[in-house]
Sequence to fold (261 residues):
Amino acid sequence: MVRFALATLICAGAAATLEGGIMTVTYQPAHDQTPDATALCAPTTVCYVGMETFNSWNGSSSFSTDFPALLTVGGPTGGIQGDYSGSLTRSSNFTYGGAGGSGYYPTVTDDNYLLTLTTLGDVPGVNYFGLWFSALDGGNQLQFYEGSTLLYTFTPAMFQTLVGACPGSAFCGNPNNGKDAGEQFAFLNFFYEGGYFDKIVFTETSSAGFESDNHTVAYLNPPVPSGTVIGDDAPEPGSIALVTLGAASLIWLKRRATRSC
Fold:
């Protein structure tokens, strides 16, 4: 049932109704490479946003970060810690990544790596993740978990539906140097309404690479999606409309066994 619901919602608005919550995916304007922390926190009463740039990472396959704070609202104490492990390697190949055209970023080839999240102080959980998703290829896959429960899978087809295929999309090519014009580069936001996630798996299923940078985590209370949702001209869609969309899609699915986009 969740599988069919996901397909329907990707066609209609990139909002997937899941057991326990809704995952909404949005994108920021072309050439953005960092999160819009002000937009993330503006509708909240409590907000903690932190970002890892990887520029001080020594290249080890296992490392921890405290996700240095970009912005807080409501005075939360503590923060969010991330532990990276697996087959990630450090790259400075600025054809395919490196936000701002400098520094380092993680990549993985024909394998995966994990980001395990824990919270400190009075931050109860993580319900937002953002990243500069660079040099999209057909093997890139992103999965969100709560414990051992898979909540959501994001695929290259969804990325292309969000920002458009190459050539022709404003998101084609590296905005820092104009290279790799045949692949998409975009900053994506993942908002989970109705719960928290504590593990993200980055997988490359081919001999190419999964490149990304500026990994951003947040606790948003409430989590109100910002950015642009596929098929929605409004820059900051409200969560009520997305919940209604998800409910309507699930009701419709009860009447039909399958649906294709």
In short: The CA atoms of residues 53 and 160 lie 25 Å apart. The first strand starts at residue 15 and ends at 18. Helices lie at 2-12, 37-41, 156-163, 239-255. Residues 23-92+104-234 form a domain with the Jelly Rolls fold (CATH 2.60.120).
